[in-house]
User: Fold these one by one.
Assistant:
Number 1:
Amino acid sequence: MSRDENHSVPEDHTLSSAVRALILGFFAIVLAVVSVSFAIHHMREGFESEYRKQFNLQLKALATNAMLVIDGDEIEADPVAAGMKYPAIINLMLPSPSENSFSQIDYGIFACYGQGTLAILHISDDQNLVYIETAINKWNNSNPEPYEIETKEKNSLLIPILNSQGVIVGLFEITGSHSSLRQYGDVLEGKLLLAVIVSALLGLLLFSVQYFVPKVLTLLRKREVNEE
């Protein structure tokens, strides 16, 4: 075996070791990014789930207080006057709106005629309410109970209003939307994941400079010496 062949064996071994180390480092970083991404998403889903749960409890408390105020006999006797009276009271129960809030609460009061035909007495925001798209028999039936609708972006309560004889004479809906929470979560999760990826790439680059590049330079110097 010649002198050049003797030197090429350790040189090739050193180079292949450096390449293997770089590849292993890359896969380790990819695994770390995936793990951190999963952890971030899991924490976010847990937070949003708890937020929706507490928000739903708040809506139910507001609905309970509102129904203590609303009188079905008054709505039946004079719906116009009731449509002016109750919003002034219910508005005082609602939390003050804030630019930093992730949720919005809207409500509607309706008089009910015939087979469930509704007349609007007051609505705060028609776009967020769900009474139009909800089947009448969900809340107007022989066993009138509050009907609850829950999605990832909304919580709604539709509560039949009864007169003193137990007849349904109206409907109260309160809906809380929290779509901005989902949007904020998407943005925040994206920023955190981007920060993790950038940090991982910088770590890989630093590893390459400290470990891989010096070995390559050493091999090049050895080859120059051998050629001389």
Note: The first strand starts at residue 104 and ends at 113.
Number 2:
Amino acid sequence: MKAIHNFIVISMCCALVLTACSDYQISVFEDDSEVYDTTELVAQELIPIGGNRFAFTEQQDVVGQVQIVRARYEDTFVDFARAYGLGYDDLVAANPDVDPWLPGEGTLIVLPTQFVLPLSPREGLVLNIAAKRLFYYPPVADGESRVVETFPIGIGRAGWATPTGITTVVSRARDPIWYVPRSVRDEYEAAGDPLPRRVPPGPDNPLGHYVLGLGIPGYLIHGTNKPAGVGMRVSYGCVRLYPEDIEYIFSQVQIGTQVRIVNQPYLFGWYGTDLYFEAHTPFDEDDRDWLNLLLPMARSNLVEPVAGSEQRIEVSRLKSIAGEHRGYPVPVVQHGNGLDAYNVRRVINILASGDSENDLGGVVSVSDAIAN
């Protein structure tokens, strides 16, 4: 209810701001005659981006760029996810018509490697459980560029949800012992697969090699001995990262670092004069009416000035993007460009160990990637 109240207040304030501004106009209008197809995106041959570290400005809400890659016969979504800093569910959402375990030789795969930053103070660790991603904002000295680093995370499954809220890192440990909670032992025992009270460090320890304890009792950020589960709802409430990612985060994050855990399936963000909308599927147990919140959220973002322009957002367009929940940002306002002018980067398949024949080599559309 608090979130709904905040959006209503923001919407009312937005109406006042729009009335007061005379040098630009952005509006939302009803038009159900033409539903936006999010697959109609244009790709240009660009230099692939690498890594998960992005510089950004205080006025910038979107980082990275969507990419596409050509699959080999032996590639799976699990392979692509770890290679490109994504989770399994990310790829399933972005490629709904592709078999995740057998994409097929030559199939073009959409890599959702562009992100709208969560609505949260940009400091410390911010975890958006709806997007299954962690965002780390390292401290910077005065005059240095702001940077964000983002990683896929595995989170609590239904019935064992990862809690939201503000907390801090209260402990750090290498090669931790897993003291199995009684509730977890009871579940395994009921299934005929009893667990010991403690699991020592090693390949059978689901915490992996590094763990950060949170101020929320019983909850951790840790590694894993089953990397395929990263980017999925598979844990008992804790947050898991790929082994290489938690090793890096562990080296950077100290006790006292602030941690914000949010649940934001719908994200709006500006990049220059372009407004983007990123939609994820809300959790079944999330009782907020997200479709009814969609329009107030859109209006609350329209206070951003675009001097000398008159721009509109189609309600049907927003609903289409929300309904498809592809998990990557889609432009809903672009100043000076048609809305189909949305570039994605082509990428050499790094799983192919430099096999240049896997380079897409030319202009490719995301609609082709989804259709093949």
Note: Residues 80 and 314 are 34 Å apart (CA to CA).
Number 3:
Amino acid sequence: MPDYWLTMLDEDNFRYTVERGIYGLPEGAGDEAKLIKPGDRLVVYIMKKGCRELCQSFTAVLEVAGEWQRSKKPTWPDEVREGRVKYPWVVNVKVLIMGKVEFAKIKEKLQGLLGIGDLDPSRLRLYALYYAKRPLPPGVGELVEAELRKSAAAEMRTHDKLVDILVEVGRWLGFRAVKEYRIDNFRVDVAFFKPPRTTPFAVAEVHVGGDVYKDLAALKHAYDRYGSKLVYVLAKDEEQVAKLLNEALQGAFHEIREHIAVVKAEELHELHETLKLAGVKGLLKQLEVAKPADF
């Protein structure tokens, strides 16, 4: 049976770890590295400091997929910023499950498994598990992994449902809608086509969880490549994601700020229900926005 180990990362380093499939430990953790063996699992918790979207949440379970090696050059975002190696012990990892489980939602279950009356990350109780340099007690890692799988399954159902709604709305408005459309090395959730144009007239991404910057990169590439209209649907943590989105559109993605429509999931649902109305269908047909067969 694999051992589960708690690891605490900031959000930038977590995303780097997932994207590159590599995890690192500081110089003083050499003895711990010897204990974490191939096949063991790392339970990832995102620290509050410097976080944006995943604050104080469990976000992944990673499997150790190799032997530990020594790194001699800055790799992680904070290492590059500081110009020094902070995590010389590195190992390849693969993602078993990703999602978002807020600490508060499973706090009572964790307290029961750990026999702790007040498990509060701000009071360093959670940090004590990290710095203990031993595997998590039985049942703790398994609980987090199970909760992440439930969270990921729910997000996928929500994501897929919203993508289906986008496709149906697009079809009702006279577009040919294609799911999971690839544009070079990027993929968008939906691409909308309208003859005689052969490239996407518009593209859409649905955000239920994951990396906002990755979504925006896909949308920006469609804009740069084809001049496509951009649609971004927010389905979870709307206020928090909207704040992060605004910062991104003011900064790294400022070129698409005036070319992106941000839509809440409930607004998309309302549009979908409105387009179902017989009178609206009739109007769209008369205006030749949609063909009879589209409905």
Note: The first strand starts at residue 4 and ends at 9.
